[in-house]
Amino acid sequence: MIRPAALFALLLAPLAAPPTAQAEDASADAAETGRPPNVVIVFCDDMGYGDAGFSGATDIATPHLDALAKGGMKFTHFYAAQAVCSASRAALLTGCYPNRVGVSGAFGPEAKVGLHPDEVTIADFLKTRGYATAIFGKWHLGDEPGLFPTDQGFDEWFGLPYSNDMWPLHPRYAHMPDARADRKRGYPPLPLYETPLEGENAGVPQVKIAAVDKPDQALLTTWNAEHAVDFINRKKDEPFFLYVPHSMPHVPIFVSDKFAGKSGRGLYGDVIMEIDWSVGQIVEALEKNDLRENTLIVFTSDNGPWLSYGTHGGDAGPFREGKGTTWEGGQREPTLFYMPGTIPAGTVCDAPCGAIDLLPTVADLIGEDLRAALGDDRVIDGKSILPLLKGETKESPHEALLFYWGRELQAIRSGDWKLHFPHGYRSLLSGGGRHGTPSAYMNHFTDGGLYHLKQNPSETKNVADKNPEVVARLEKLAEEARRSLGDSRLEMQGEEVRPIGRVK
Asked: Is 140 in the active site?
């Protein structure tokens, strides 16, 4: 007999079916070209929905992103799995809600925990299919050997082990001299790692810069782009997976001289312009190597903007709140998919989906059986959105999407309806801070409510009283989710939660 929790897990995600017709088409295309498609994922840190031209920004020039959106598909209801760094990254790579893989929050230095090496990441999956794999940018899923990217399927890594504010200098002091006495206490120097390609340490991440300083921070985006271009040039004759999780625009924000003072939104806008440039560099490298049409490019962010930083934070667009909340501003992300000949140009997807769908979508695209790689007992929550990408349907593959903060289920979405449960959240006392100094948050509490996101995307009009049947249906879905993944508010332990990785 299948338990209710298992039934709910099957409802949300399993991939026991054989490869779809779309996957078979992809396999045929790959056979004609002699190789399967490449995959490139560019993942920003704390970028708001209103921070790119293709998603509504008018004061920041993002011509490369806008061109990809025009030539591909823009998603208007694409979600990060949680509104915080480590959790959202675990979800993107594994196709699971972070709760399922035991990850929550944002790991600090020397946390002794990370993504469990037994979890199957996109890199793991593609590497076993003959792909070269690389990550250039922020990891944030374990900062010690055994939990590094190279333990999760990546051949190469260049970047920071965690967020760029996890260093002795607080963002509010980043513009001050290094000798200033006011520092964040308890943080070691921020290291930058690189994986040697040759020599006795080949394939083993080594500390390249022991203590990243402010001039280094200003070059992080450029360095990531340079490594990405070099990787494409070196791996042009074999299929590859390139993951570029930028450290920016997470505070403290820095930009190279190339873009300083170029935007209409101050330093923050300059940072976004440099990220847009980095995407252009990747696209140019693909073009030069005749790989553009055989490469899937995905651009999205790990969570919404850090609103308390004001001029150094992003814009959530029309949505409520930002990073650290389950309101739309916290998890709805500026997102595009691009692959000429596969994804119709100039299209828009309004179906709810998210980063948890990337792994099954990639498997479907290359015509491989993800279930065989995962094993019959390993449940994931994502589903392939390849039919959406090809324009063959406009319907979300999800009956429901879950919105957790930590271990607490705070909201659930089904179709155009989103039901919030009673929970606390943070909101600004006033407008955000200036020049890297944050303003204060105030703790708020909602009794919950039902919102129709098509009619009320800002989640301000509670219509629960007028739609009791919708509330009842979403409550039932939520109860099944709690059995599977738990809910700390109700002191429920999930029956299908897997262990976090720990330093041995």
From this structure: yes
